[in-house]
Amino acid sequence: MAPAEAASAAMIETRGLRKVFTSRKGPVEAVAGVDLRVEEHEVFGFLGPNGAGKTTTLRMLATLLPPGGGEATVAGADLRRQPALVRTRIGYVSQAGGADSEISGRSELEFQGRLYGMGRAEAARRAAETLEVLELTECADRVVRTYSGGQKRRLDIGLGLMHRPRLLFLDEPTTGLDPQSRARMWDEVRRLRDAGTTVFLTTHYLEEADALCDRLAIIDHGRIVALGTPDELKRRVAGDVVTLGLAGAGEQALALLGAQDFVREAGREGDVLRLYVDRAETAMPAILRLLDGAGLALETMAMSRPSLDDVFLHQTGRSLREAAS
Ligand SMILES: Nc1ncnc2c1ncn2[C@@H]1O[C@H](COP(=O)(O)OP(=O)(O)OP(=O)(O)O)[C@@H](O)[C@H]1O
Ligand SMILES: [Mg+2]
Fold first, then answer.
1. Does some domain include residue 321?
2. pLDDT at res. 293
3. How many domains does the chain divide into?
């Protein structure tokens, strides 16, 4: 490894990365100044609702879209000045996935290898190896049209891996997959990381970000609203969350409970209240007494430790589950 790419070098570093699209309704600020650093050998996630700017950021970092502003270094090369070098060092698996192809998975992989300049024999060897690793050997010689959703998605990843990139971009690798295929995909991503590949993926699944990512950025309206390990982010919303369902009395209950000292923060979505408290065990009896005293009917009550959704809610005032649907 060259000295300029010492182990401590970031795999991705961006400063003020930006993109504004012009649409009929006026300018859309898809990416509004993103600063981030992705370390070598980590699985880094971009979590955010539809339209947050995830794909736009990835496409810029993968040289598929010229940045509107800002700077970035990707896999040791300058994004603006050395896009061709960036391209040889990265793999990119798009969100949509390829069309139903009438050729076999093996042929697709071999073709991809040839595109990257491999000779016939080398492409064939590398394709066989990739099929083996992704457990696609059994369907390797069938036309891709007949593959299951999970098999297709694994082939997409294989296409991104043929030239052994040190950095792999995966745009929503598991959207639309059944839980079993999703779990396999997670294993695959972990295996890649263990083998030394840095993975930058996007998702709008909270569970996925939590289970798979070493670190993640939560992105909303083109801006990073939180960045850290899943645990760090959850700890930022300290204490417990008490969720209350109130029949038609959300507003009064918010006024009453939001004013209590033991409630650090309160939020309301319709008749559902979320209270951030230090200790749910002591807060819950007090909440019951207060609501009872004010004659407000409680329908449901639940407590939880903060989730990534709470982090999102905390930073944006909206629930990621709802923002994403
Ligand atoms: N080519 C384009 N022209 C105009 N607007 C665009 C273009 N591409 C993206 N946008 C807009 O930019 C914003 C960010 O889009 P982007 O695809 O990056 O979001 P995303 O986070 O990937 O969303 P999803 O989760 O739905 O994939 C959206 O408002 C989108 O409509
Ligand atoms: Mg997208």
1. no
2. 94
3. 2
